[in-house]
Fold this sequence. Notes:
alpha+beta; two-stranded antiparallel ribbon; globular
Amino acid sequence: xxxxxxxxxxxxxxxxxxxxxxxxxxxxxxxxxxxxxxxxxxxxxxxxxxxxxxxxxxxxxxxxxxxxxxxxxxxxxxxxxxxxxxxxxxxxx
Length: 93
């Protein structure tokens, strides 16, 4: 019985990777964000529909843009890059 569940998990992982690849293929807009602390410009490749969904308040940013790292999402929220964020608030323990 364990083998059946193992196969199902593998199929699920493959399906999720395909979903992620399809979602990534819709990432066709570059959003440039300037860090307000260091003035470095960062470019993020996003799906425009996802940005609109987040900005309209229809989804939380982590739901709308799960393919971005938490640091990239924070950059969109606060316009503070990961380096400056860590400099101001320290590393996570």
